[in-house]
Every structure is written in structure tokens, then in C-alpha cells.
Amino acid sequence: MPVAQKSAISFALVHIPVELFLATQDNDIHFNQLTGDMKRVRYRKTDGAGHELKNEDIVRGFQYEKDRYVIVTDDDIEKIKTEKDKSIDILLFTDLSSIPTVYFNKSYYCVSGKGSEKAFELLQRAMKDTGKVAIGKTVIGTKETMLALVPEKDGILLQTLYFHDEIREIPKERAHPPLDKQELEMATRLIGSMESPFEPEKYHDEYQMRLKAMIEDKIEGKEVVAAKPVKSGNVIDLMDALKASLEQNKPKKSRPSQRKAG
Fold first, then answer.
1. How far apart (Å, rounded) are the C-alpha atoms in residues 107 and 20?
2. For the whole prediction, is pTM greater than 0.85?
């Protein structure tokens, strides 16, 4: 697994070199665009006169007026980075529950760098023992980002966060209709009947599995078979729906084994 970025956790007078690794990957099936006679659709980079360009012919520019640009190089970007930008600058420690879920973006494994194993272990253990996460800032690529360092069983997870001005407001105000006590009690019972530890390894992208099987069938010249329709409960009344759901989630009684007469 390639290192996404080398950095260092910095707070007070503490400096801990670390390496960041992407924690997730894209497993989706991707398609190519084709013409009717099975030729790949190609996208070419061209200038205003239609001349095809190579990557080395292209520079990064910012338009500040109509048809006027200023060129920005990688060196320019590196020069304006401060030491804080090159490190993970811890601003505060807080409870994970205090961060609204909408702020979470991308996950990285944060791994200790060479020679920083003890300091890294100390920080991870202290955060875990106090039940706190660290909130900080860093620059990843060309973008500054807020982040949370979350202590995990096997190390520290770096979770990038959106800035406040990147979060959109809820499009409309939610209604708060009055709730019936019996309905609320039954909904609570239904939740209790479905309570179980989350075991992520049990779940898989079933749609991607069906998509892959369909592609394999087409390669073999087999006919694509339509998926069987899934029956949905057309229960309109909320109480009826809750009762039916509770009945469906009742644990099945095991039948007593029948002893054979001797």
C-alpha cells in the first residue's frame, strides 16, 4: 500500500512523525464508453485551435479576468506552505460524539514514522484512556482540511472533516407532528428486537456482485435474467406496520426433539 502523505502530529512541544495511508478503496465495476461499432470513445486535450496537447504542454492557471490568467507551479504551492501546513497541527481534544456526522469526509490510517513508535503509542493510549479525539488542521495535496484523529484498537484513524462553510443547510424545516405514546413504545420495542452488534464483515455490495455475474453471463453468451420482484409490505397504517414488523422479528421457537420409544 503506497504512502499517501508523510507528515507529523504536532501539539504543544510534541512532534511525532507519521505516515498516512488511504483507508478505503473503490471496488465498483467501471464501464468504458463505446461507439456502435465497438470502438473506444477517446477524450483528447486540445488548445483553442484544436491542436492536441501532451501532459507536459499543460500548466496550471488561475483566471483573474476574462482571458487573463496567472500561472501557478508546484514550486509556488510548496513555497507558501508553512511548517504547520506540512504537519498535523492539533488544536484541541474533544468527544467524538460532539462532531456532527455530516462533517466526516475521507479516512486515512495514521501510522507512526521511524523512531516515533513510543510517542505515537503514548498519544494513542492517552486518547483511548480519556475517551477523546484530537481536532486539527493540515494540508493534503493543495487543500487545507480540518481533521479528527480517532484512537482505534490497532492505532489511530485520521478522518478528514469539511469546514463549516462547506456544509449546506437543510433544504427545508422538518415537521414535528405529535406522537402517540403507544406508537412510540412499539417503535422502541421494534428497535430493541433488531438490536445487534455491528459486524461489517457480514455485509457485501450485493448489487455489484449481481452486476459482475450479469457481465460474466453476457461474456458466455447467456441471456440476462430479470431479478425476481421483492414483495414490499403495503401497510399504510403506522400501528399495523409496527405490529407486523414486531411479529416478523420475533425469535423463532425451536421445536422440542421427539424421543423415540424404547
1. 10
2. no
